[in-house]
Amino acid sequence: MAHKYWEAPYCSQHSCSLRSMASTILIVGATGYAGGDFLAHLVTTHPELEIRVFVRDEAKAEQVFKISRRICCILGFGSPDWLHVLETETAGADIVVQIANTDDEELSFALLDGVAKNKNKNGVYIHISGAGNLMDVSAPLGVMQPKVYGDKSDKEEILALPIDRPHAAIEQGLIQRAALTNTRIAIVSFPMLYGKGRGTVASHAGHFRTYVQGVLSHGKPFVVERGENCISSSHVSDASSALAFLIAEVLKGEKGRIRWGREGYYMVESSELAFKDIAEEVARVLHGKGLIQSNEIDRLDAEAVSKIWSPGPLIWGGNARARAERLRELGWIPSGPSRSEAMEDEIDSVLLSIN
Q1: Helices in 168-262 by DSSP H: which ranges?
Q2: DSSP secondary structure string, 54-66?
Q3: pTM of the predicted structure, to 2 decimals
Q4: Which of these, 3, 18, 125, 251, has the minimum number of CB atoms within 10 Å of its CB?
Q5: Is the Cβ–Cβ distance between 292 and 217 less than 8 Å?
Q6: Reduced to 3 states, what is the DSSP secondary structure of residue 211?
C-alpha cells in the first residue's frame, strides 16, 4: 500500500514528493511533549529547512499544522507498511530525528538503517535519549549520590553502563550498528524536562502529570524516603534550543563541529535540584490554588510510591546527575525559565488536562 500525505496548503502529495534544494529534516515524535516544543522552535529558527514529520492520522496532522502550514505531514505511523514508509522517507532526508520513544528498538533501528541507505550518502541520524541510564538501580532511594556524569569526561563510562539501566542497551546497540554501516549518528540525552511546551498536542511531561495527580490523590506532595536525590533538569525550551544548536552545526557541512558515533554523545542540562525542592515548589503552587491543605511534604517509602506509580520510586527517588560539557564547550547557553518560574504555568497545563 502506497503511503499518503495529508493534503493541506503548502503540503500536498505533489509538493511533498518534490525534493527542493533545501536541506530536509524528518522528525518522528513531533506530536509529543519534547517533540512538539522542538518542532515549534525549529520552524522559527530554521526557516530554510524543509520539515517533514511522520504522524499517525489526519487529526494529528491538523494539530501539527497549527504550528505551521509549511510543515509536511506524512501519514501512516503504526500502519501495516509503516516500516517501509519510514525506510523510503528516511533514505531521502538529510537529517533524521527520533524524538518519539527512545526505547523503541524497531522504530529506531529502522530509521538508522534508512539513513544508512541515504541516496546522497550524507544523511545523519539524531537519536533523542534520556538521562535515565545514569540512575543506579542498586543505590538507595532518596539519597544524593556524588557521581556526576560529564558527556566528555565520562563518555566511555556512559557508553559501557549496565544494559539493565534505562536506555543503555539501545544507545549502545545503535552506536554499534552505525559503526558497522558507516552511518553518522549522534545521541542527545535529555534530562528531566519541565515547563509548558509549545507543541499543540502535549504541553507537559507525562511523569510530571502523574506526579501532580498522585499529589492530589494523596492529599499532599511527597518524596521518596528523604527526597535528597538529585536530578539534572532543563526547561523544555532549552532542550529544543540545544537540539537546534546541533542541527545548525550539521547544516554547516564540513565546517560543522558536531562529532559522531562514540564521540557524538551530547547531554543536555541547565540546572540540578533535589527532588524535595521540586516537591516544595509543587506544594507552593497547589496550596496557593487551594487544592491541598498545607505545604507539608510527606516522606514515603518505595512500596507506598509504587502504588501511586510503579516506576515512581526510581523516577522520583533516583539520581541522574549530568553535565553538558560538549554543548557548553561549543557555545550553547541555556536561557529558559527556572523550575520555580515555570512551575505555575506547567501545573495549570496539567490541571487543564485532568479536569
Answers
A1: 168-181, 206-218, 236-251
A2: EESSHHHHHHHHT
A3: 0.93
A4: 18
A5: no
A6: helix
Residue 264, helix vs strand vs coil? coil
Q: Where are the domains of the chain?
A: 16-354
Q: What is the pLDDT of residues 235-286, one digit of tens each?
A: 999 999 999 999 999 999 999 999 999 999 999 999 999 999 999 999 999 9
Tell me which architecture the domain covering 16-354 has in CATH.
3-Layer(aba) Sandwich (3.40)
**Which residue's entry shows cell 512500596?**
303
d(CA 351, CA 238): 23
Which residue carries 525550551 as its cell? Answer: 237
Count the Cβ atoms, other than its own, within 10 Å of residue 164.
Answer: 9
Q: In whole angstroms, what is the distance from residue 35 CA to residue 205 CA?
A: 11
Place of cell 507552593: 284
Q: What is the mean pLDDT of each run of 10 residues along the chain (355 residues)?
A: 42 42 89 97 94 91 93 80 80 94 94 86 93 95 98 97 95 98 97 95 94 96 98 98 97 95 98 97 97 95 97 97 98 97 96 88
Q: In whole angstroms, what is the distance from residue 265 CA to residue 259 CA?
A: 8
d(Cα 115, Cα 109) in Å, to the nearest integer? 10
Task: Please state the length of the chain.
Answer: 355
